[in-house]
Write a structure and sequence with these properties.
With 432 residues, the chain is an alpha/beta fold. It is built from 17 helices and eleven strands.
Length: 432
Amino acid sequence: MQNAALRLKNLAEQLTGAPLPVRIRAWDGSEAGPPGAPALVVRSRRALRHLLWKPGELGLARAWVAGDLDVDGDLYAVLDRMAGFIWERDEDAPGLRQALRDPRFRSAVRSLVALSAPFLPPAPPPEEMRRHGRLHLHTKGSDRRAVSHHYDVGNDFYELVLGPSMVYSCAYWASPDSTLEDAQRDKLELVSRKLALRPGMRLLDVGCGWGSMAIHAAREHGVTVVGVTLSQEQAAYARKRIAEEGLTDRIEIRVQDYRDVRDGPYDAISSIGMAEHVGSARYLEYAHDLYALLKPGGRLLNHQIARRPQADESAYTVDGFIDAYVFPDGELAPVGTTVGLLERAGFEVRDVEAIREHYALTLRGWVANLEARWPEARRLTSPGRARVWRLYMAASALAFEHNRIGVNQVLAVKTPESGASGMPLRAREWRA
């Protein structure tokens, strides 16, 4: 009888019509595949059952989070090779996900079922977000639960991954040799300059996280800040930092939905890595709400991940792994859609800066932090949660590097009726 690794290799190649780009190491100790290639480790038959019951991203994610799938070698290399094999294939050469659902491959699927026996549905890992349908997306309650799922997993864990800056968004790199801390400081300063912050101004930081933008703006630019978050753990951590900095008279942190902020107008608003949680159905409402909170001439800096446009936008679906394990109910939109909605709400969009490569560097920095302290990371959260983060950050780094997704800073102004925007004549004067 063929060993398990060879049987899996042959089945995968039969289903996809392409040579397997990595080695397979199976639960029985057998190996098969290209010599010298990094290895995909199938630790248990349960990995196959996860994939058969949920073909595609979610089944693979469940097997990974449960520890039934692993890699031996460079994680980035395995993900890069497997992306083309599983997802990015032409219609005439279906990937594994498509083939598992295609009746033309019934014989191969039956063989896979036999190899995975007993063919019982495995329970999802406990780290998966449980939900009952998607009928009530982006209500205040559902957003609060989604944010808690992602952010309330322990501030000590986030300190390990993010480093001392505690900034959970794309940094701004002077060069690949810069430190993560320097790049995050430079990002906060870039946002501050784009908003033209100066003493006496009032800033609203939407999705304030652990308070880094609020602290930077108050300490370096003399503004007063209101930061809002839906995470109790973030708010407690931010307040402690603010007290240690002696800035409690200048910064207020609220556990509050941005839709409930009623004490405008503000001179400026920063929204950094938050708008991905808003959702397409609510995005125009989000833009209108921020517009109403600004004084005439006030500026909004909207820092947001974007996906590439699709020929059929109605066919867009949220990534199953991201939705179940990372950012429940999150949605990405093309940057043109975002700009259009901000303008429909009344904003004048004055600058769009694409910083896609900067996010790839940032994510690689976070992965390096996580891997350097892997046993501690597992202890601080859970083995499954640590595996979620390692996979999602490494895969996201590759997605940015290959231009599958991007990230943009959109600077918009609530231009008064006089037309005096307050913007400098020369674009991007903030770089000086």
